[in-house]
Write a structure and sequence with these properties.
Strand order of the largest sheet: 1-2-3-6-7
Number of helices: 11
Number of strands: 7
Structural class: alpha/beta
Distance between the termini: 22 Å
Shape: elongated
Radius of gyration: 20 Å
Length: about 250
């Protein structure tokens, strides 16, 4: 689908997509537990009523929103309050130890409203892992061999230095960088957060399990805060994200 189609939240399209999902899930499922609105291009005055109707009709149990700005959140919550409609149960922001939380004001608002935060891409599409640090280092060296010297490469090198520092801190605690990234996202500011990770083999599944039992100490949290400030100055967030997409890194 085109980008416009993927973010189409018109009432007509929402209903079509819900019906399609129910057909694909089959009668054994019968109802969708949680339906996420991925994106927004219509007012809450149009989307909130149709979500309320779908719940009342027994087609979904609850709904949530994804990548909503604070103003998007205000829009839909105000409509629900004014019209007596069921509020979204979840919000799904981009969040990880490199980038931080996308639109933190929106996340705070959701937390105050009792919504659950579904943090996606906790590993920055793979960058928060030793394997992708190694792959990125090889990428930099291949460009150097071609005589390619740019500010972008300098920033990537410095960003990798910061990630290696965090990796060493994780190893000292008996873990690895991926576990540190997931643990940070799950406990950020003690908000009600569920981390959405997509492990692709047993070793990566073990990273998810281990991170669930790792409470980062204050010193480690401070080190990640400082790293995020350094990443921001380097524009490492965007550069590394684009690189992970180009490498088709799906360890999220």
């Amino acid at each position: 689908e085109t980008e416009d189609r993927r973010i189409d939240t018109s009432p007509e399209r929402i209903r079509r997509q819900v019906e399609k999902s129910l057909r694909l899930l089959g009668e054994d499922v019968g109802i969708i537990d949680l339906y996420q609105l991925h994106g927004k291009n219509y007012s809450g005055y149009l989307t909130a009523p149709v979500m309320n109707e779908l719940i009342k009709e027994g087609k979904i149990r609850a709904y949530g929103v994804s990548n909503y700005s604070v103003w998007d959140m205000v829009d839909i919550l105000d409509v629900c309050e004014q019209e007596g409609l069921i509020k979204p149960a979840t919000t799904q922001p981009f969040a990880n130890a490199i980038h931080g939380f996308d639109d933190i004001e929106s996340a705070f608002m959701a937390h105050q409203e009792g919504m659950t935060i579904l943090a996606h891409s906790p590993l920055h599409k793979g960058m928060l892992s030793e394997a992708m640090i190694e792959a990125t280092d090889k990428y930099i060296k291949s460009r150097e061999e071609k005589g390619d010297e740019t500010t972008e490469l300098d920033n990537l090198r410095e960003g990798l230095d910061i990630l290696n520092e965090l990796s060493e801190r994780a190893l000292e605690a008996g873990h690895n960088l991926a576990r540190l990234g997931i643990a940070w996202t799950s406990m950020y500011l003690d908000m009600r957060t569920v981390v959405l990770s997509a492990p692709t083999d047993k070793s990566r599944l073990e990273d998810v399990r281990a991170s669930a039992n790792w409470r980062l100490d204050d010193e480690t949290l401070d080190a990640i805060d400082a790293a995020q400030a350094r990443f921001k100055k380097l524009n490492f967030n965007n550069m590394s994200l684009n690189l992970m997409k180009a490498m088709r890194a799906y360890y999220r």
